[in-house]
Known about the structure:
This protein is an alpha/beta fold.
Amino acid sequence: MLPAERSTAERTYRYLALPTPPAGVWLPGVAVPLLLLGGGCAEAPSSVGLEPDSATVRVFYIERPIGEERFTLRAEEAGLRLTAELEYTERGSRGRVTSSLAVADDYSPRHFRAVGNTYRFVNLDVEVEYGDSTVYVQNIRDSVDLPRPEHSFPVRSYAPVSGRAVLIAYWERQGRPSAIRAIPGRDGDVIEIEPRGVDSVQVGRRVVALRRYSVDGVVWGREAVWLDEQSRFAALISRIHILPLQAVRSDLVEALPDLQTAAVRDRMHDLERTAATVSSVADGAFALLGARLIDGNGGSPIEDATIVVRDGIIAAAGPSTEVQLPAGVRGIDATGKTVIPGLWDMHGHVSQIEWAPAYLAAGVTTVRDVGGEARFLTAFRDLIQEGRGIGPRLLLAGLVDGQDSLGFGAVTASTADEARAVVDRYAEVGFVQIKVYGQVRADVLRALKRRADERGMTMTGHVPADMTTEEAMEAGMSGVTHLHYALAGAPPGDPTGAVEALRRHGLVVSPAVVWSELLGRSIETPIARFEPGIERISGALALNYESAGSDRDSSAVQIGRAEILSLVRRLHEAGVTIVAGTDAGVPGFSLLRELELYVEAGLSPMEAIRSATLACSCSTPTRSGTSRLSGGGRGWWPRGRCTTCRRSGDPRGPARPRSHRPLPADRTRALLRRP
């Protein structure tokens, strides 16, 4: 690791000990507060002129250095040409993207070509050729000629990162259009750019002024982009698929933690703006009347139920013959709808604010994040908890891995002392679990367990590579994420003994079957055939999933799928606790698909609902008593916030929150939706 990279990692690691972000950023020798101005408060120059440039950009994944992009921007007769080569190694997997972007003198695109893979399963083979009135687009196996839009720009995934400077120059020269069509993409896929201010950061003995922009639509959700005073690319905070990516010019690496803080504050400002657009249709005291009530506890549905809510707390729930509408309380007709507890996703990666409305729209009101950046996650969680942002309650599991070259993320532990320090730092900023990854050694795992016990935390995650599942359980792991870790090291053939060991130890398994289905599909099978939600999400994200798949024919994939569902059924029948989780997947849809797959595996619909409600609450330390349920009417209900959503008759269809006022994290929410 280079000295500058080591400094960045150390400063990031130390950040975990801070309960809240500092008001200013302490830089070597002087405190230089960042000038963090909200959208539109500080205007960038109205015209930008790009000059030839050549540099190396360091690339980080969840704050761990993984590679670099080398680029050259040179003048040619018809304008400018950017050529870039990205090379990285991520968890032992090598990746490479070569790209070329040619633009005219006014920065209008002429030609774009990108080949390679920006992530393990995200494949790029795209070419865009601009004519006078048409645009030729070739993406993987498809090609099309489109009418040339008034404003458009070729983008695909996050690479080349240096291309953001050309994109912003185009936006400036075209008069800052409100929307730029993203190509390739769907008709509604647009790029929106907004200047956000100027950040002054200290690099060595220099104070460097960087213009900050919000760019939405190159990848799914907003990115933070910085250009220097010469309009050269300086830095980018984005995502590698759904997890955090940082890219910074090599001479500015020292400033990266400060830029991350600025980006987090921008995103929290954006989330507050989103929350301000959502108005409540009912507050204070009100009641839902006539709905079918499913309490998630396994009992029979209650028809014609009444649910009384007072100041966000479910005060009573049961048959209308037993629970009366109190005098003076507003009644809301819910006839023909079904009320269930808010759903949990026990394997989430919420590294961007766009997850918040997507989850709520699907009825997911609690998410356990099992691997991201503490700086962003704690701010995201706290803003929602304080009632200033809209989104599900977030429970955080702190990622830790070994220092091996195959490791994941910047937080590592290779000794017992380091293990204790990691647990302490996560505990101090409110994490409730430790997420173990594959290169953690057995002695370190035991040290993590001892300190986690002392801090009231538990351990979940991946079974370390040199251990079996049974050894990991004996060392203190209480849960695993991904089905295959449930039987790591078990003898082939009859898994009866291994399954019994899981039950005996009380291991909690989050299978994430939907993730295996999504990435393991045959390329012959359109994703929309089993997950129609793919057609409703961001085109940038959908293109990532559509680029993945197996070369096996559909019949071979179906055999493997049947084996996975058979194992889910076997674990369930043996009494192993299964909790619903997705590993992200298709925002707003994948958790519902996960429950469908559980039913297909043999769970009853009620058991599937329990896997995303009561089973989650009872198996997760929340530091606030949320695993305790309080009685209301005839059913047992989580004490908590009531979020009302109206859904179409299709249970897989879109949902829109109709009432929301976030409350403290010790409360869960209920959801009203059609059966």
